[in-house]
């Protein structure tokens, strides 16, 4: 089966609960991860989460089916979450399909694969498109209108009434990242002691107190300094990150989104094609043309293939080590910038 973020709910309803493997791909990794979180929350008993990486599945393809068919130490339920890049999970998913065709995966635990930089045309996706027990969902880059609607839905669920253009402001402040938007809504609900049974109206002043920084004070100058190899500029941007309390995970997500954008653009651009003309034809925001053109030259081919999984690993490390997240991020940004600078 196949779906997009727009018709995912309808496709799931039509499936009647038959889907056991979910392959979420496309440029919006944040949207894919949010969808996984919602699906896991809707499981009758999600149980233990087993995390797998693309490197683990590539080196040991049988690991996926082993984990999907095994039980935990105490016999509890579980679900499998694999975060991979491109077709790293291809052989593992092929093994899953082979066993499922033999009936050996009946009763297996649900498997969720979030594939950064993969598409519905990838080799892994093609294994699953015609299966009734699997779903390929493509997550396209979000726009302001759709994320604003998501913010309103999040606020309603949290017992918050957003006045004026506050939902749109939140969507813009988090750079259209639905995970960060959910974090902002959660902070507002906690600050106002809101709940569905105890609704509260949010004023602009409330969000001024606890909200995310706007794009002007936001992630992209730091992201561009790192990916463009601007070693002289980077220390100042890292200092600014600390001064304005930028969220390290938010910075990592912005890096992942830009890397996914670069990977997608690189795959579409023809050899020798005029870069600026190409970016304009692809609808890239004109103010980003200079930075993106420079980054495309620096992160081509195998360099990008190594960058994307490294950023996914960074994201996981920041979540697991929140106490030293700023330090870990600063170290990784420096390494990325040095690597980019070496390509001048």
TrEMBL record:
Keywords, ordered alphabetically: DNA replication, DNA-directed DNA polymerase, Nucleotidyltransferase, Transferase
InterPro entries hit by this protein: DNA_pol3_clamp-load_cplx_C (IPR008921), DNA_polIII_delta (IPR005790), P-loop_NTPase (IPR027417)
Recorded catalytic activity of this chain's protein: DNA(n) + a 2'-deoxyribonucleoside 5'-triphosphate = DNA(n+1) + diphosphate
Record's GO cellular component terms: DNA polymerase III complex
Keyword check for Transferase: yes
EC number: 2.7.7.7
NCBIfam families per UniProt: holA (TIGR01128)
Family, per entry: Belongs to the DNA polymerase HolA subunit family.
Protein name according to UniProt: DNA-directed DNA polymerase
């Amino acid at each position: 089966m196949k779906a997009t973020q727009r018709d995912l709910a309808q496709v799931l309803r039509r499936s009647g609960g038959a889907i056991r493997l979910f392959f979420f791909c496309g440029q919006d990794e944040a949207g894919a991860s949010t969808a996984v979180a919602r699906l896991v929350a809707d499981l009758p008993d999600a149980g233990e989460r087993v995390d797998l990486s693309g490197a683990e599945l590539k080196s040991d393809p049988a690991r996926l089916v082993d984990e999907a068919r095994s039980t935990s130490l105490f016999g509890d339920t579980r679900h499998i979450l694999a975060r991979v890049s491109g077709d790293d999970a291809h052989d593992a998913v092929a093994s899953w399909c082979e066993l499922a065709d033999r009936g050996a995966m009946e009763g297996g635990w649900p498997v969720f694969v979030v594939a950064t930089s993969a598409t519905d045309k990838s080799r892994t996706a093609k294994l699953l498109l015609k299966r009734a027990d699997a779903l390929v969902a493509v997550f396209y880059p979000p726009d302001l209108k759709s994320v604003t609607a998501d913010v309103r839905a999040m606020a309603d669920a949290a017992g918050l009434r957003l006045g004026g253009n506050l939902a749109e402001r939140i969507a813009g402040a988090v750079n259209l990242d639905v995970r960060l938007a959910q974090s902002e809504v959660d902070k507002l609900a906690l600050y106002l002691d809101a709940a569905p049974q105890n609704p509260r109206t949010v004023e602009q002043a409330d969000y001024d107190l606890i909200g995310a920084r706007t794009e002007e004070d936001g992630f992209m100058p730091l992201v561009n300094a790192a990916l463009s190899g601007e070693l002289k500029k980077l220390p100042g941007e890292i200092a600014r990150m600390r001064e304005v309390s930028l969220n390290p995970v938010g910075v990592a997500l912005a890096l992942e989104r830009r890397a996914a954008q670069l990977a997608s653009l690189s795959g579409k651009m023809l050899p020798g094609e005029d870069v600026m003309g190409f970016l304009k034809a692809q609808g890239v925001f004109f103010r980003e043309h200079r930075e993106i053109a420079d980054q495309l030259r620096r992160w081509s081919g195998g360099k990008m293939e190594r960058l994307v999984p490294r950023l996914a690993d960074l994201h996981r490390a920041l979540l697991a080590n929140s106490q030293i997240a700023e330090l870990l991020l600063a170290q990784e940004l420096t390494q990325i910038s040095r690597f980019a600078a070496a390509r001048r």
